[in-house]
Amino acid sequence: MFDPTLVGLGFAVGTLIGLTGIGGGALLTPLLILVAGVRPSIAVGTDLAFAALTKLVGAGVHLRHGSTDLKLVARLAVGSVPGALLGTRAIGLLEGTVGAGAEPLLARVIAVALILAAAASLARALGVSWSAGAATTPGPVTAALIGLLVGFLVGLTSIGAGSILMAALALFYGLSGTRSVGTDVVHGAVLAAVAALAYGAQGRVELQVLGPLLVGSLPGAIVGGALCSRLPGRVVRLGVAGLLMVTALRLL
To answer: Which of 23, 58, 200, 229 is deepest in the core (most CB within 10 A)?
Structure first.
């Protein structure tokens, strides 16, 4: 019998993903810690497995529809894949350095990542953009560095593949709409899969938590997708930014 609390969390996160396009990391990881009482390191690993499975499905859809900038995905992945592995490794280094204090410290790091995600969501809601055309579009080295930073943050906290990277795509590349989402989802699927495998090898993915989350997320994503066109996008993103900030303060 699935834990109804976990099914409910999956439904809530699936609804918000369908409604906003923001990845589950910024939403699910803190909820697993605060509501379900899951240890931070296990919450991160389980969320990454959840993200990998859900984003692989979405990535297939976007690839079939050609709504992905595959060149940009490859450039980001050059930095993000090793970055994710470094972030995963950092968990072990934290435990080796501070012992039992690693979990509370990780919770605070997650809170900081949530504040960054809230700021990124706010920037998207306000339509902030840096790029003014092809002449200002960052090259492959800059893309790899962006990927490295996002990948490290994802590997350490599971946060950033959706919220922060989506803002970066809008800010530096002027991407918006379906192409931005498609690029983010395909890159996020690769990134989450690599990090989830690394966490799984360390025994930090809890299958008994993952199962009910997936059961709840599917109908939630359907509901969120149906509501997406009926609610004002900017208002929703501002609301999500506020939710992320409140959750971060709870973790500090």
So the answer is: 23
- What does the angle CA 119 – CA 30 – CA 34 come to, to the nearest 5 degrees? 135
The full set of domain ranges for the chain reads 4-251
Q: Could you give the CA distance from residue 171 to residue 158 in angstroms, rounded to a whole number?
A: 21
Residues 6+ apart with CB under 8 A from 143: 72, 75, 76, 78, 79
Output the average pLDDT for the chain. 84
Taking residues 84-104, report their average pLDDT. Answer: 89
Residues with Cβ < 8 Å from 168, sequence gap 6 or more? Answer: 120, 146, 150
Cα separation, 167 vs 2, in Å, equals 35
Q: Quote the CA–CA distance of 64 and 56 in Å, as a whole number.
A: 12
Q: pLDDT by residue (tens digit) across 130-187?
A: 554 444 677 899 999 999 999 999 999 999 887 788 888 877 887 766 788 788 888 9
Amino acid 72 reads L
Q: How many CB atoms lie within 10 A of CB 184?
A: 30
User: Alpha helices, DSSP H only, in the chain?
Assistant: 4-20, 25-34, 40-65, 70-98, 102-125, 140-157, 163-173, 177-201, 207-228, 233-251
Q: Specify the amino acid at residue 61.
A: V
Q: Is 46 exposed, middle or buried (0-12, 13-18, 19+ CB in 10 A)?
A: buried
Distance CA 58, CA 71 (A): 18
46 three-class SS: helix
pLDDT at 193: 94
In contact, 154 and 160? CB cutoff 8 Å: yes
